[in-house]
């Protein structure tokens, strides 16, 4: 594996080595971790093209999840009558909504790309996600 690669995250150029490979998808695609920025990208072994896995990863995904969760919580408050039942049913939606908004607003673009894309999530990103909650 002596093919030159360029990270689409930070534009760092290097030679592809086996220690950079963090996963595989189909026979020709590799998930590669950049040694400079540690961002993960998809590498096509046939064409030599590097790209973001599953697109660029959008901050809109956790934002939409947060909005939908808050909407569900408000709907439960308006529909369900006994207050104790509202508290039981709406609390998980409120917690998930807050966690989604915190992820959308405070996570780095690399973390958003890993969490919303097809690439495997690194241990560092999982630890940051756990610490955030």
Give a written overview of the molecule.
This protein has about 130 residues and is an alpha+beta fold. The chain folds into 2 domains: about 5-50, no CATH class; about 60-130, no CATH class. Helices cover about 45% and strands about 15% of the residues. It contains 4 helices and 6 strands. It has a 4-stranded antiparallel beta sheet with strand order 3-4-5-6. A two-stranded antiparallel ribbon has the order 1-2. The N and C termini lie far apart (about 40 Å).
State the gist of this model.
The chain is an alpha+beta fold. It has helices at 60-79, 83-106, 109-116, 123-132, and strands at 4-6, 13-15, 21-25, 29-33, 40-44, 50-51.
Distance between the ends: 40 Å
Structural class: alpha+beta
Instruction: Note the main sheet.
Output: 4 strands, antiparallel
Uncertain segments of ≥5 residues (pLDDT<50)?
Answer: none
Beta fraction: 15-25%
Summed up, the helix count is: 4
Q: Which geometry do the CA atoms define?
A: elongated
Identify the strand order in the major beta sheet. Answer: 3-4-5-6
Sketch the topology as an H/E string, one letter per element: EEEEEEHHHH
- Give the count of structural domains: 2
The helix fraction, in percent, is 40-55%
Q: Averaged pLDDT, please?
A: 84
Number of strands: 6
Report the C-alpha radius of gyration, rounded: 19 Å
Question: What are the SSEs and their pairings?
Answer:
Blueprint: E1 4-6, E2 13-15, E3 21-25, E4 29-33, E5 40-44, E6 50-51, H1 60-79, H2 83-106, H3 109-116, H4 123-132
Antiparallel strand pairs: 1-2, 3-4, 4-5, 5-6
Helix pairs in contact: 1-2
């Amino acid at each position: 594996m002596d093919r030159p690669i360029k990270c689409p995250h930070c534009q760092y150029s290097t030679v592809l080595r086996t220690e950079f490979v963090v996963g595989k998808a189909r026979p020709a695609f590799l998930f590669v971790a950049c040694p400079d920025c540690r961002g993960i990208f998809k590498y096509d072994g046939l064409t030599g093209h590097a790209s973001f896995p599953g697109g660029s990863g959008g901050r809109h995904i956790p934002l939409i999840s947060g909005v939908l969760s808050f909407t569900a919580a408000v709907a439960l408050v308006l529909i369900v009558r006994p207050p104790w039942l509202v508290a039981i049913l709406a609390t998980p939606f409120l917690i998930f909504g807050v966690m989604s908004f915190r992820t959308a607003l405070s996570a780095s673009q690399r973390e958003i790309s890993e969490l919303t894309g097809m690439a495997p999530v690194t241990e560092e990103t999982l630890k940051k996600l756990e610490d955030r909650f």
